[in-house]
User: Fold this.
Amino acid sequence: METEAAVSFLEKQGIKPSYPRLRIYLYLHERKNHPSVDMIFTDLSPEIPTLSKTTVYNTLNLLMEKGIVQALTIEEKENRYDIDTSVHTHFKCESCGEITDIPGEYTNIELNLPAGFLPRERQLYVYGTCPGCS
Amino acid sequence: METEAAVSFLEKQGIKPSYPRLRIYLYLHERKNHPSVDMIFTDLSPEIPTLSKTTVYNTLNLLMEKGIVQALTIEEKENRYDIDTSVHTHFKCESCGEITDIPGEYTNIELNLPAGFLPRERQLYVYGTCPGCS
DNA sequence: GTATCTGCAAAACATTTGCAATTCT
DNA sequence: AGAATTGCAAATGTTTTGCAGATAC
Assistant:
């Protein structure tokens, strides 16, 4: 995604596209890894020397409020963030630690909840070994 | 579950059934809520005045190593613990906060992972409103 | 009496908050 | 100038670790 498109997307969502916000948004979009706050900070810090973790937190919380990003609780210790908010499964490799998107067509979930349970959202996390490690 | 049965179960799993361990195990077994460390500590503390959170953590980590308990990452801030390690779904009510077990027969998951992905375990978390709150 | 277990205090992290300085318009 | 944004430092909350004292066999 080019900078121009990102700027106008953020503006359309009511987010002022400051430089740190723009770079964090582009980072999520380009890597499509499922980064922790620390990964984003560590990767962008060399290129944006004044960047602070607080701004990374602020930006992610803002993107979440706007529904642009979702938080994953696939790790026990830290949150991960995903710019893909469509319905899909996450696979965490217990060997290399990598989190991979599994497209919706690989998983079919039939939810027939007992009466009165109204689902709004769901997350399927699968833990195991990825192709590179098996 | 009676104390006797719990004692012999723990011994069979190679866990010395000390008083705190026994009480924590019985707590998980009787309530079948999906408690945080703090919930266990707060609930048992009045009856076991010398109990410490460290011991709650130690005991839960021990039970997890032995495969008797599983950690749930359904909450963003804290781990929850479940003594039911069978395949089932967890429903978190966003209104009252309660986490409910949804038995396996209410959910059918067909996992057809891309080649090379070897699943070991999976967790399905559903977020919404429970019968009492809807 | 030796191993293990417990629990306090401190440390290690992740995340949030208060606030002053900076930036943008 | 005025409003929003950034980033430092401190606070908060969860979990782990080190270690001394207590407990169990």
Residues 19-31 of chain A form the longest helix (13 residues). The helical segments of chain A are 3-12, 19-31, 37-44, 53-65. The interface with chain B takes residues 71, 73-76, 79, 89, 91, 94, 100, 102, 106-132, 134 of chain A (CB under 8 Å).
